[in-house]
Amino acid sequence: MIDSVSQTADGDKFSTWKNLVESVAQELHGAAEQSGSPPTSTYQEAELTALRKAQMDSFPEDYQLLKSSKPIHSNSRLLCLSPEFDTSNLIRVEGRLRRVEGLDPATVHPIVLDPNHPNTRLLIKDYNSRLCHPGPEQVFAELRRRVWILKGREAVKKHQRTCFECCKWRSKPASQKIVDLPPPRLRLFKPAFHLTGMDCFGPFLFKVGRRTEKRWGLLFKCLTTRAVHLEVLTSMDSDSFLMAMRRFIGRRGKPAELYSEQGTNFRGGETELLEAFHQLSQDLNFLI
């Protein structure tokens, strides 16, 4: 049953290691004709099945020889690792930590994997994601606690070079090219607020009696001297904006130019001012 399920544990069909293990676990659970959700032991067996699939695809001759208790060929890639076959039908590294006490057997004898197999790449991606995209040495060290990937350090670096999050965290800030100041910033011999920019901010909550009302702020900023003027808006409609601008002009004088974003209140106020301007007589239009 396990061998038949392992044929479907193909990493090319999945985007993450979790999805691969989940799919294999569901298939193992269904093959056993059990009801309910898969237990923890089924997920553990699913992980071993996915790793077994990677070994059978990457080292077919070595896998069959070790399974038959025969020595591997002298030109095998696993020869220097002294591989051995365990009770879970997995190839493990014999290692040099047999006499260490207190270590997990999986750490003493890690599972051998090929770096180019899709299941191995998904495993590297999973470790890299769970460790929050650290340096390659940390990911490689955590992998070594369980698996022995041939040329594992290069495999981790290769994955992190294509990982979007890793590239984002390791990217350097772009240097901005200095450009010329716009003409409104260079009118040095004009009064304050001759050229003005404006924008709204808020809302803020205010207590009026027993009720709570919203208020917004309207910021006027001189583009030359950086002086600021603040007005309060009772709403974000065109009438409130026009009243605030009228108070600003009455206090600071009429600006030659006003700059703003494409807010609905700003555009509505512009429309009303243009309509009022076109309704004036020709003599008043000329004076304005």
Structure explained in plain terms:
- This protein has 288 residues and is of the alpha/beta class.
- The protein folds into two domains: 2-170, no CATH class; 183-287, 2-Layer Sandwich (Nucleotidyltransferase, domain 5), CATH 3.30.420.
- Helices cover 44% and strands 16% of the residues.
- It is built from twelve helices and eight strands.
- The protein has helices spanning 2-6, 17-31, 40-58, 60-67, 105-108, 118-130, 136-144, 152-162, 164-170, 238-252, 264-278, 282-287; strands at 83-85, 91-93, 111-113, 147-149, 195-208, 211-222, 228-233, 257-259.
- The chain has a four-stranded mixed β-sheet.
- Helix 2 crosses helix 3 (40-58), helix 6 packs across helix 8 and helix 10 packs across helix 11 (264-278).
- The mean pLDDT is 86.
Largest sheet: 4 strands, mixed
Helical segment tally?
12
In one word, what is the shape?
elongated
Q: What multimeric state do the chains show?
A: single chain
- Strand count: 8
Could you list the spans in which at least 5 consecutive residues all have pLDDT below 50? none
- Gyration radius, in Å: 35 Å
Average pLDDT metric: 86
Topology as a string of helices (H) and strands (E):
HHHHEEHEHHEHHEEEHEHH
Spatial strand order of the main sheet: 7-6-5-8
Q: Approximately how much helix is present in the residues?
A: 40-55%
What amount of the residues lies in strands? 15-25%
For the termini, the CA-CA separation is 91 Å
Structural class label: alpha/beta
